[in-house]
Please model this.
Amino acid sequence: MKSNIMAALLAVNLSPAFAATNATNSGPVEGVAVEASSASLEASKETPAQRDARMAWWREARYGMFIHWDMSSIAGTEISWSRKGSKPLDIHGDPAGYIEDPAYDNLYNKFNPTNFDAMAWVKLAKAAGMKYLVFTAKHHGGFCMWDTKFTDYSIMHTPFQRDVLKELADACHAEGLRFGIYYSPRDWHHPDYGLADNSKYVSYMDGQLRELLTNYGTVDLLWFDSYGHGDPLNFWHIPETWRLIKNLQPEVVINNRLAALRVKKNPLAVTNNNPAVSRGDFDTPEQRLGKYQDTRLWESCMTVVDAPNGGWSYRPDGKVKPFEETVRMLVSCATGDGNLLLDVGPDATGLIPADQSDCLLKVGEWLKQNGESIYGTRGGPFRPGEYGGTTRKGKTIYVHVIKWPESGPLKFPPLAVKLMNARLLGGGKADATQTEKGLEIAVAVSARQKEVTVVALEFDSEVMKLPAEPLTPETRDKSK
Ligand code: GLC
Model:
């Protein structure tokens, strides 16, 4: 029943009125993806309604935890990227094949995070209001955080010798948190990566994916990073990899980074008959808030820590974002019709540092009061702007106000539904009036919240059928 409602809502939302919006939240993956032409691909057998039903949990979740963690936390330098030695297909001129970085590549011999407690992380994510978790099983540096049979460069060969991924999967399953795996197709540690036609490496990768999708129960989400600058069609066997994944876990949600092709950079892609897979299930703007996009699912991945020159893993030289900024990022994503995947970097002992968890928990508190304006909502009908943005669900529009007008009420264009009631989430009074000219909202200064004030406007009928407001010059576009 629930999925029928979702399907109906989505059908409305994909009407031509919405098609005018642009789908530009694709993230760092360059080029245009080519749709699958092979009927044998499992993904292409899915009807739009089946796809909407499969994606419903993810769309309703709106907020997840990203975790970048491995032995790089000992050095406190950026995961994989701080590794010297060759980064083939990433750094121009670096040779293919493994070139050792004696310091980084031996850190794992000392990795013994005895404070690691999967259940504590999962409980933190839940208390923070997050509905899913995505963990770096293998980052570009090639170190594997699970019991893999394919290499000794894994957590099982550290003093710790515990399958961290398994413990996280079990804790997620026990606690009802959706479980996601990040996997980097790039592998700067593997001797065959980028050599010859790359096929030896691809069979290693496929073998590992088989392990990950066989030994860890339900994997709700696969979060691939993009491949390096190699020829994506002939260097990777993406349709085969895709089929393997879909055969093992047909319901799994997959981001766009394995699927998309660097068409612009690769003339082969447009002439080659080799079928490419679809664009994946969602776009992935990275370290930036996606702009309003309701024609295709998207998720911004952002770090809770600002580290010098960016960074995802434990960085003692970083600074945790203030709560106000963090909660506004979530609001920005939800009002733009997208998700937020917020990254934490646990330390070398296995703890998520208190400054990070404190910020997360504050957002969790905020969500206890304001969660109805985030979970299960869609963006719109009004576009985000300087004032903030709107979300909607059922007969309610939630107006998230970050900046009030200097004087007078906040004004919106007319709507074809009748306003019945206005309330302030968390209590207090909101005044809203509806005339032919539009809607006006006023909240006393004393009743406003510092980070964001949420006004719920209740109407006489469903607000999902309302078309999204057209794009205007004032409409925020943060993607640049
Ligand atoms: C980039 C970085 C990688 C990080 C990822 C997260 O691809 O190379 O380090 O894990 O973004 O989106």
